[in-house]
Each structure stands twice: as structure tokens, then as C-alpha cells.
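Notebook, p. 212. Picked up where the previous page left off. The plan for this session was modest: take the two constructs that came back from the sequencing core last week, fold each one, and keep the raw output in the notebook itself so nobody has to go hunting through shared drives later. Recording the first one now, exactly as returned: residue sequence, then the C-alpha cell string.
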Amino acid sequence: MNQRFILLPLLLFFICTSCDNNRHVRYYRVQKEAINPTVISQPSAPSSINWNTPTHWVSTKGSSMRIGSFDVPFADGIGDVSVIKLGGAAGGLAPNINRWRGQLNLKPHSEIEIQQYVKNEESQLGTFQWFTIINPEENETAFLASIFQIETHTIFVKLSATTHGISQLESQFLDFCKSFTSGATQ
């Protein structure tokens, strides 16, 4: 009983002190702090990328990320070529290769392992790295890919086809990549 006698007055005290008859909306004014934007000046990347498309490649809409998209016929089907331009280093060589390896259910490779199979070629746009990614247990999808690292951007060119299609299309893919230039129109 002593506990009820103590709790009841405490409860009443709490209710009385927590209620407020003041039902007015309150407005506050806080002075805004001036922010001076910082502008970082960087050299601009080429405004566009040009290339020579093989005559039998068919331009397609692709996705919003692509600056170029093509259906590429070969003896057993049609491959897909995507050209994507991203800012900066776009994650770097190893993370991008390992992302594509993951798409083919392959384990990641270390930077040292990757350097053993990456090849270099030249275009008017500059040196590019290219490589083949094949899962020997899955012949339905394989990749030929190239990466151009230019000033403030990275350009990825990826051909997706069957393992057999990749071997048929390698020279066309490399000729396409070697044709890349920077210019005013695409």
C-alpha cells in the first residue's frame, strides 16, 4: 500500500507538469550561413568519341548508359557490343575485370593474375587494354572487353557472345576498338 501511496502523487505530479495550455504555433527564425561554392577546374575530356563501325554490325538503342550499342552477327548467333563512357578511373582495372568475371561465375583475380592476360593496343584515342573472359564450363556467354583510360574518363567496350562467337569476332572487335578517335560528332 505504501508503494501506491507514493506512486499516485508522482503520477499526478507528472501529468500536471507535462501538460501545457499554450496551444500556439511557434515560429523560429534562424539566420542562414553563407556558403561559398568551391569550383575545381579540370581539363575537359573529349566532347565525343568517334569510331568506324563494321558494315554488318547493326546499331541498336541499348541502355541509357551506353554511348554506342550494336548487334553483331556471327555464324551461330548475334553478339552484343556496348560502349560506355564513365568519369575518372571508373573503379580501376581489377575491379571491373572481376565484376565481369563474376557475371560469368568465375572467381576474382588478383592484379598480378590480371596483368598476365591483359594486352595493349593502340588507337588514335590512345593506348587501350583488352582481354578475353571465358568460363570453360559455360559456353553460352563470354566477353571480349577493352578499356580506354583518357584524361578524365574511362571508356569500356564489351562484346558479349558465345565462346565460339568470341573467337570468330575477335579481329572485328579489335579493329573496331583501334578505330576510336576523339572528335566533335559521333
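Okay, moving on. Second construct, recorded in the same format:
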Amino acid sequence: MRHQLIETKPLDRLFQFIEYIQSNPCAFERSINVSNGYFAKQKKNGSMGSNILEKIHHQYKMLDIKWILTGEGQMLIHTYQVHEAIQGSRVNEPI
């Protein structure tokens, strides 16, 4: 039996990120200042412009844009992953 890799597109990966940050497309669109329904329209077309990627990058520094574009690497930039781990461990520390 041959296994096929399911190829995801940049928009699919972006939706993974939106879910990861526990948001929704509408709130995400507002956060980067694009029109309501932008991503629903783009999902039909299958693409988004570089200007949108720039807006996403400026608002969400922890997101690795290379991962969005290619699927290579990790969703989050390593320094942000370390920061999140430190923050998470501090939550349970006694005061």
C-alpha cells in the first residue's frame, strides 16, 4: 500500500495558525486590517497576496512566514516557542 502525502496550501496552514491561537477568521481579519470575508474569498481562489503576508508578519511576529509559504519548518519561530514555554512554566510556580 502506498501512502500519499496530503499537500497543504499556504491558506490551509494559515487556518491552522488561526486555530492554534484560538481565534477565528473574522477576528483574524480584523487584527490584520483586511476586509471581513477576505480569507473565505481567497480560499476559493487558493492564494493570498504578499501584502497580506506582510500584514500577518507585522501583527504576528511569532509565526514563521516561511512555514506559511512552504510548509517547511515549524509554525512558530523558535525564540517564541522558548518564550511560551518559559511563560507556561511560570504560571504553575508558587508565589
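Notes on construct two before I forget. Residues 10-91 form one domain.
Flagging for discussion at group meeting.
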